[in-house]
Amino acid sequence: MTNTTFKPYAPKTRISQTRTLKTRIVRTAALQGTLLAALVLLAAGQAPAQAAAPHHGIRGDWLYLTVTRGDSRSSDTRGTLLLCDPPQGHAHAAEACAELGAAGGDIDAIPAKDVMCPMIYAPVTVHAHGEWKGRPVDYRRTFSNGCAMAAHTGEVFALDT
User: What is the pTM (predicted TM-score) of this model?
Assistant: First the structure.
């Protein structure tokens, strides 16, 4: 027969309760530190996204416009910043701002011109990113050629002249 010692149940002492409380405090502080670090990383992760939009701090109506000629592998991309208070940014800024103003900043709402465009496939992709009357604008569309682009977007993407 083996000799076993019997340990009677003893309630927690004040020292063990203090240690338990200190452990909880340390764990809570560590958790708070981890959460704070996660929030900092999330905020840092959003900074490049905001940096991608040039001139984010501009007040008023503005659009960053790009026009890419050719297929998606093309490097023939032109871009400019269109400011509409006062109109500036490219050769037809005043006309582009007036067209956008009449369409409420919606490029799709610009009335299409009644023109005859050649049936030549020379794709043109346009992109507008910015803000109009406090509302974000993100427009992207590929047209069959420059004539079709000009007919549907007016002077907004007329960057070449």
Answer: 0.61
- Residue-by-residue DSSP string for 29-86: HHHHHHHHHHHHHHHHHHHHHHHHSTTTT--SSEEEEEEEESSTT---EEEEEEEETT
Q: Which residues are within 8 A (CB) of 81 and not within 5 positions of it... i.e. 6 or more apart?
A: 54, 55, 62, 63, 64, 65, 89
* pLDDT by residue, tens only, the chain of 161 residues: 566 666 666 555 666 555 665 556 555 555 454 444 444 445 555 444 443 444 455 677 899 999 999 876 666 888 999 999 889 988 899 999 999 999 999 999 999 999 999 999 999 999 999 999 989 999 999 999 999 999 999 999 998 75
